[in-house]
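Students often ask why we bother predicting the structure of a whole assembly rather than each chain alone. The short answer is interfaces. A chain on its own may look different once its partners are present, and contacts between molecules only exist in the joint model. In this exercise we take two input lines together and write out one structure for the complete complex. Read the inputs first and try to guess which parts will touch.
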Amino acid sequence: MSFDQLNLRLCRLGATALIVLFVASCAPPRVVVSTPPSKPIPSPPPAEEPPETSREPDPRAVASLELNQQARLLLEKGRIDDAISLLERAMTLNPMDGKNYYYLAEAWLAKGDTSQAHEFNRLAEMYLADDPEWVVKTVQQRKRINEAFR
Amino acid sequence: MGDGLLRGLWKLLLVVVAMGTLVAVLGGVIYCRHLSTEIEERFSARRWHIPSQVFSDSLMLYPGQRINRRLLENALHRLRYRVVAHEPMNKGEMHIAPEQIEIFLHDLKVLSRTRSGFAVKILFSGNTIKSMFRRDSGKSLALLELEPEEIMLFFGQEREKRQLVSLDQLPEYFMHAVLAAEDHRFFDHHGFDVRGIFRAFLANLREGRISQGGSTITQQLAKSYFLTPQRTFRRKFKELLMALTIEAMYDKNEILEIYLNEIYLGQKGSVAINGVGEASYFYFGKPVSDLTLAEAAVIGGLIIGPNLYSPYKDMGQCLKRRDIVLRSMQQQNWISQESLAKALKEPVKTIGETDYGKKAPYFVDYLSGQLGTLYSPEALSSLGLSIYTTLDTLVQEAAETALEKGLARLESRNSEVYGLMKPDKRLQGAVVVLQPKTGHILALVGGRHYSLSQFNRVTQARRQPGSAFKPLIFASGLDIFTPASMLSNAPKSYRVEGELWTPQNYEKLSQTWVSMRDALTRSINRATVDLAMKTGLDRIVRAAEAFEFSTPFRPLPSVALGAFEVIPLELARAYCAFASDGLLANPLSMKAVVDEKGKVLERRHMTVERVISPAKSFILSSMLRSAVETGTARSLKDLGIHFPVAGKTGTTNEYRDAWFVGYTPDILALVWVGFDDGSSVHAPGSAAALPIWAELMKAIPQHISGKWFHVPPGVTTRTICLQSGQLAVRGACPDHKEEFFLVDNVPDKNCRIHRGRSPFNYIFRRFEGVF
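Now the answer. The structure tokens for the assembled complex follow.
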């Protein structure tokens, strides 16, 4: 190996090392340290509470589901106002259940109020985003609301 | 000649008498015809003015529900359930034990929902409903709806209360009790009974007092329906003719039905109890169809002297009169000897006297204002409408109690400062509780003593919100800034309407820069004004207007600190949007109006309108939760609130107003404390209003799920340096934390303060010249 070749290799090695160093220093910062803060710091609270260890179903969710089912029967019978009243109750018992919003959107659509139907459909989409089956339903519902609006 | 003259005179006299009789008969016929027109007009038109009733929302119970037992039992008492020592056997009875409540439910009729009463057993474990099941079938119940409570009646000038009944709703022995007491020959005479008058005359003579009336039921009806109570010969004569006319026009059953709905049967405060339907509820808390024979005899016996023989006035007289009626029924062979003996032994158990006072009076006033646009006062006092509302009587009771206790506590603590206030100048307060998603008003307390002041401080007062207004400033600031953005806490003066204004912090703070989250958490005035100025005052005013305040805001720096007066209900409504994914619901007090026949005339549902994005409302709620966990509202924890809450205190200059608005995904409550004349409360929102909020929430566990908000789309997290508010650098930033950001407003710069301390950056900078 000539001196020039050795020099070239050393240069390449040095350049590679520099590139590695550069890339490393440009990498997105990752924080793993857990230095205790020097003063009380208002940290953002957790987004949601940790899941309860108990396997008992949430009583409010159960009651909400019961009302939801009653409301669906009323919707099928065409008793739209009665259904909305029950769904409003169901919603207040379990505000996280997107199905209540889905059926509220259905009810308002049946009443011909596409503006309210649209708002409830948006909520349904938001709260049912993790359920592929319901995602399809809410998208289809949105299309129906848009068609009704036209 | 003499005989001829006499005969002539005699003939003339006969002619005169005949003519006179003819004229009298003709006159009588014409008068009766006139009376029949009057009677027909009255009977074919609306016979009675029935006051409209206002009902609370119905209460839903379900297994697993945590509920305040004391408030639940109070509600059951108000629903006229009678406590019995044994297993409830009849509708309207309940048995209360430490770990269970057994209720024989009344029939339920709410809008289109009807349900026959049945016996239910509710088992408790502490304050949690363990299970519920029907006693007859043993079937467990997933939900149980209790009847709505009557909270007010719209009385007209006559202030009469009645519930109409038809004859087919009445047990036969009930009709017999009335006939035995008043007119046992009713089905045999034609409106006037000479034998009855003679019998009554003899009986009264024998007893030396008026114990029996001679008037028939038809005469009594004519008297009470068409005539004045004056005792004149002319009126008595008219009564007689009217009775005869009524008998000629209507059949006996129809007359009896009108009579039973018309008669006066007692007094409840200033309200007259009319008709057997209402009397049955007033005295025994149940429909006439459920009355026992002895109870029917009590009501029958009351007709002659409702206040003399009332079981509420004189039980001894009531019993004597009841027994007379029962014996009379037996004499007429309407009941057997055995039934008589059994009924005579039965004690008179009344439901207990209560007044028709308004419950939740400020709420009802607010409701009345809304109803006034739909119905005239005359219609409300006569059409017998049923008005269903959003009021939750358990929450209302909890709110009233918490406010009164909280104000009394403040008064005792500051007795020297407040001095001896006149009752109408005392410390005041207001509470409104809403379901944030629906806008339903669950409770509304517009002041301390409705009897002293009907001014509704929730819906009519305009007060400076102070720091309680800040969340609206921060919500509009989120378009440009993030919770990690640094705001200036340096003293600075602003020109407001030609004068210099220098906002001051409530507490001394040495930091020159504070994060946006910290500024809201600790309610830092200077940083908030800095945020407002950087956001743009016009933008802030436009954003605040989107929340539909009736206040005309102006783009002044002081708007940031809540200098513009707002109506408390409007402020509470604005907070609802933060608690409901950015949707602004209309505050709703009325749910439906139903007519006497059950036809729904009006129906109100929640209506929503988007004012901010779900992502922004989530981030704002997160910042307001910090205020509760570590900021100005952290004392909530010491007061026993251990579930996640977003909240903001508010205090205005000189402590004129003390506020606390707090919410969860399930419920929102606003508390205001202050003096009507603007005197100082001498306490901030955290000391004056917040404890009332805490006490209220602890009393209504059924509305607390303990859950926090779902993270909506459009929110992301990053680790930031607390000193710079920029992205934290690994191994370099000593104080850091996770922070929420809007996905389209995420910080993109590394911490400028600690970036230089990173080993990689150190090496990088050494080679900076090479590249």
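Check your guess against this: Chain B has a mean pLDDT of 89.
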